[in-house]
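User: Hi! I'm working on a homework problem where we have to compare a predicted structure to a textbook description. Could you give me the structure for the chain below?
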Amino acid sequence: MNILMMHPHDLYSPSEPWTIRIKNIAYEFIKKGHSVKLVYFPLDGKNVNRKMLDNGIQIIALSRRLGTFILLRNIREIVRLAEWSDIIHFQKCYYYAALPALIAAWIKNKPVHYDWDDWETKIFYYSNPKQRIVGEFLNIFEKLIPKIVDTVSVSSGHLRRACLRLGGPPENIFPAPVGADLQRFRPNESLLGKVKKKYNINNNLVLYLGQLHGGQYAELFIKAAHIVLNHRGDVNFMIVGDGYRAMELKELAVRENVDNFFIFTGHVPHEEVPDYITDADICVACFEDNDITRCKSPLKIVEYMAMGKAVVASNVGEVRNMLGGVGILVKPGDAYSLAQGVLRLLDNRALGLNLGKFARQRAEKKYNWSKTASNLLTAYKKTDGKLVKQ
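Assistant: Happy to help. Predicted structure tokens:
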């Protein structure tokens, strides 16, 4: 099958790491014997129109700049690529990628699949509450797309229910949670001690992995650390990631009087993340309960699971389904509950080791990119006779 995939963001920028999803799905399609062309929209204009090969995937870069001429030129390019494709797959509802995909599918009579992994309007308003015109345009587009595409994949039950409310036929909606790269993210004793030695850590290490942007809730981790340290002094805490809230969070660590026990690593390349998870004794995924977090299937959780780690996570959205009993669930938005979950595992190492073993097994069975890609291929089959090759 020839699969044309599109993502509105930069595949190669650490500023937009959420492209991990589409890259890994594309790699899995290649492994399964399909051909993939992947269109992306780089942040740096110098990379526009770049074409290259990446692990068997043909990569095409188009411009995301505003302008009617640029949009028309992008539409023309996607129409040309659609001639080659058997199906068009796009992720997220940003108009400069979604609109060319929809128009090309209509012109060339090709099936089109929408991969809905976040509620983009909610995320936009979280960071840009005053930009009503842009926000409402995004809102209209996000609500329209599920009605007009052939099939939709959703990362969570909350998005599935939203899709149904918007008029998406239930038989055309398919589950597609995040997955882990089981080869890169796996228990590996040869990595043990590497990170603890680098940062001179001799204590237990509790780790938080994620972007330090709005809607990530790392502040709960810092406040929970204060509570944990009131009970035990043999613990260090590490935040792996970067973002515009990094300084604010460092200042919070000082106010909570835990800065001497905290390490902020800054940005870490994704290929190095397993090194950090390996040396963690406990891994944390903390959230508040709102429309943004209910829609997610958090990548950090499946990567923790694949590494065979004990996980403490807020019980919101897909988290309970993802962990499936192999982690500690705590009350969302509650630093005290989060701290109690961490303390429970610090006080019972055998429990943590046992949970980690079963977490790896669960990732192997259900939460990996190969499984997600297979679900998407099943969705592609359901295209009302448009798709003739498999």
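For your comparison, note the following. The chain has 16 helices and 14 strands. The first strand starts at residue 2 and ends at 6. Good luck with the assignment!
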